[in-house]
């Protein structure tokens, strides 16, 4: 269970979730955004492997469990108002399910 | 109004909002996360100044309008499944309301 001193720093949405930005260690590349509940954060902090809550599947999701594209977590930070996390990770292979290294490959223009 | 070809790429939450990760041009520093509705994105794309929807105040929020800490937008990307934006910006001064350059200055530990 997530320790109280961590849990009380967090502001969750109506579904008990908080967005986690995932940034690659070294390159600084923003890889993806995923969602965590308290237990996913607890597992991430204690195992060192990025673990999210899949909103579409309604289950915990250890990144790389099926793809092999693990994220080894170097640090987890919470923002000034407690409603966003920033993970720094060592990414094995591609972060995106499309095979791209990160999920942000479509630029919008006016 | 946001052009149809942009609008149809986006998946909004129940409140019509989409999270926008803000990354600093050059340094790669993740500065903050804020939220946009379609009109905020439209204003961001057309003015080149980062404009968000303030969930707490329920109004549009041109970053820097009161603080002077503007964000000049270099690019806006949407992720592979259309539910997160990534802005690259030139940040004037501090991005965080605390005066810190970015909002992620609190590290969590197990």
Summarize the structure.
The structure is a homodimer of 110-residue chains. With 110 residues, chain A is mostly beta strands.
Key descriptive features of the protein:
homodimer, 110 residues, mainly beta, Ubiquitin-like (UB roll), four-stranded mixed beta sheet, 2 helices
How would you portray this structure in words?
- The structure is a homodimer of 110-residue chains.
- With 110 residues, chain A is mostly beta strands.
- Chain A has one domain: Ubiquitin-like (UB roll) (Roll).
- Chain A is 13% helix and 36% strand.
- Chain A has 2 helices and 7 strands; from the N terminus they run αββαβββββ.
- Chain A has helices spanning 4-7, 38-47; strands spanning 18-24, 30-36, 51-54, 59-62, 71-78, 85-91, 106-108.
- In chain A, the strands form 2 sheets. Chain A has a 4-stranded mixed β-sheet, with helices on one face.
- The mean pLDDT of chain A is 96.
- The A-B interface holds A 3, 6, 9, 19, 21, 23, 27-30, 32-33, 41-42, 45-46, 75-81, 84-86, 96-98, 100, 103-110 and B 3, 6, 9, 19, 21, 23, 27-30, 32-33, 41-42, 45-46, 75-81, 84-86, 96-98, 100, 103-110.
């Amino acid at each position: 269970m997530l320790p109280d001193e961590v849990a009380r720093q967090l502001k969750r949405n109506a579904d008990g979730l908080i967005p986690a930005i995932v940034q690659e260690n070294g390159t600084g590349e923003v890889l993806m955004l995923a969602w965590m509940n308290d237990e996913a954060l607890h597992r991430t902090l204690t195992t060192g492997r990025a673990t999210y809550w899949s909103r579409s599947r309604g289950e915990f999701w250890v990144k790389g469990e099926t793809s092999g594209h693990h994220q080894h977590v170097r640090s987890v930070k919470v923002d000034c108002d407690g409603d966003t996390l920033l993970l720094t990770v060592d990414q094995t292979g591609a972060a995106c399910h499309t095979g791209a290294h990160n999920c942000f490959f479509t630029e919008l223009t006016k």
